[in-house]
Write a structure and sequence with these properties.
By secondary structure, this protein is α/β, with parallel strands linked by helices. The chain is built from eleven helices and twelve strands. Strands 1, 2, 3, 4, 5, 6, 7, 8, 9, 10, 11 and 12 form a twelve-stranded mixed sheet that branches.
C-alpha cells in the first residue's frame, strides 16, 4: 500500500516520466475532473445555503493551505496561538487529528493553551467556549473546512513549490482551484529564505485572483537541537563540520536538508519518507545500519518525526538521535499579520 501511495505521489508531482506513469496520469486526470466537479457542486450548495455554515461564539482564525502538505502549518499555528494569548485572549487550538505527530507536538509546544482534537470543528469550537471560556479559536488546517464560519482566513503557501504542476488532486497537489484564493484574507509565503527567487511570480499569481490579499513572507529559524531520549538541548554550533544522516517523513524534505547544510553540517545520508510516515523497526534498522557502516554517529530528524521515532530508543543504541527545533519567523510585513489579529481579537 505504501508503494502504491508513493507511486501516485510521484505522478502528482510530475517526478516520474515512464510510460506507465503517463497512463496512470491520464487516469488520475479523469478522477481530478470528477473531483473538481464535486467541489463546484459543494461551493454551489454552500452559496444557496443547502449546506449550512455555523457561526460560533469565539472568534475563529483559520490556518490552512491550498496544496497538499509541506507549507509548515504546525509551526505557524504555534506562533499564532502564542500571539493571540499574548494579546490577552483565551485561545484554544482546534486540530483535526490527522497525523498524531502534529497533535502531540502542538500540545507539547503550547503548554497552557488547550488543544482539542477532532474532525467536527463546530462541536470543538463550542467545547472550547463552554469548557475553557475561549473567546478565540485557531483552526489548524481549516481552509477546506466549510461548515464553520471564519473571522480570519490565513493561507500558507510554500515559496519553494507554491502550486505544484497547477493541477488539482489527484493529478496534482492542489487541494482546490486557485480561484479559492479569493476567500483568504492573508497569504503567508513560507520558506521564503530558500524560495526567495519565486516570490515575485507567486505574488503576481495570487493577485490574479485576489488583488486585496495581504501577503507576508516568512521562514523557519533553527533554534537548537534536542536529543530525543535524554531531552538534552544542544547548540546549533554542534553541527559545524560534523558528518551526519538526516531522517524525515515530511512533505518537503528539501527545506529541512537545506537548513541543516547551511548550519555547516556534512550530510552523508538522507532518508526521506512520505508525510506522516509510520516508522517501523525495519526502517530504523536500515537507518542505523547505514550510519554505522559509514561511520556516522549523529542522526538529525524533524520535531514532527521525533514524535514517531521516540519509541525506538533501544534500536538506535549508541547512535546520537536529535531533533532540529525551529521557530516561525516573519521576514517582511509582520504588521500585516499582527494588525489583522488585533483587529479580529479586539472587535
Amino acid at each position: 500500500m505504501r508503494r502504491v501511495k508513493s507511486y501516485i505521489v510521484s505522478i502528482m508531482k510530475d517526478e516520474r516520466k515512464t510510460a506507465d506513469a503517463r497512463v496512470a496520469g491520464v487516469f488520475l486526470s479523469i478522477v481530478s475532473y470528477a473531483y473538481f466537479a464535486l467541489l463546484q457542486l459543494m461551493y454551489f450548495l454552500r452559496k444557496i445555503k443547502i449546506l449550512p455554515r455555523h457561526k460560533v461564539r469565539p472568534k475563529v482564525i483559520s490556518v490552512g493551505n491550498i496544496t497538499l502538505g509541506g507549507t509548515g502549518k504546525t509551526p505557524f499555528t504555534i506562533f499564532l496561538a502564542r500571539h493571540v494569548q499574548f494579546m490577552g485572549r483565551k485561545v484554544t487550538v482546534l486540530h483535526r487529528g490527522y497525523g498524531n505527530d502534529e497533535s502531540v507536538l502542538l500540545k507539547e509546544k503550547l503548554a497552557g493553551i488547550p488543544v482539542i482534537i477532532g474532525r467536527d470543528r463546530v462541536k470543538n469550537a463550542l467545547q472550547a467556549y463552554d469548557e475553557f471560556k475561549s473567546d478565540c479559536v485557531v483552526l489548524d488546517d481549516g481552509f477546506q473546512h466549510h461548515r464553520i464560519c471564519r473571522d480570519l482566513d490565513i493561507l500558507l503557501i510554500d515559496s519553494t513549490n507554491p502550486f505544484g504542476n497547477m493541477k488539482i488532486f489527484p493529478r496534482g497537489i492542489l487541494r482546490e482551484p486557485l480561484a479559492r484564493l479569493r476567500d483568504a484574507h492573508v497569504a503567508i509565503l513560507t520558506k521564503s529564505d530558500m524560495g526567495g527567487g519565486n516570490i515575485e511570480a507567486i505574488e503576481k499569481e495570487i493577485h490574479r485572483y485576489n488583488k486585496d490579499l495581504d501577503i507576508a513572507q516568512s521562514y523557519y529559524e533553527p533554534v537548537d537541537l534536542q536529543r530525543l531520549f535524554s531531552k538534552e538541548t544542544i547548540p546549533l554550533s554542534y553541527l559545524k563540520d560534523r558528518r551526519l544522516s538526516l531522517v524525515s517523513g515530511i512533505a518537503n524534505p528539501d527545506y529541512f536538508s537545506w537548513i541543516v547544510e547551511r548550519l555547516g553540517a556534512t550530510v552523508v545520508d538522507k532518508f526521506c519518507y512520505e508525510d506522516h510516515y509510520g516508522f517501523e523497526e525495519s526502517d530504523v534498522s536500515t537507518i542505523c545500519n547505514a550510519a554505522r557502516k559509514r561511520g556516522v554517529r549523529l542522526i538529525i530528524t524533524t520535531e514532527k518525526d521525533a514524535v514517531r521515532l521516540r519509541r525506538f530508543q533501544t534500536a538506535f543504541g549508541e547512535l546520537d538521535l536529535a531533533a532540529l527545533r525551529v521557530e516561525f519567523r516573519v521576514r517582511k510585513d509582520e504588521k500585516k499579520i499582527l494588525g489583522r489579529l488585533h483587529s479580529i481579537c479586539n472587535s
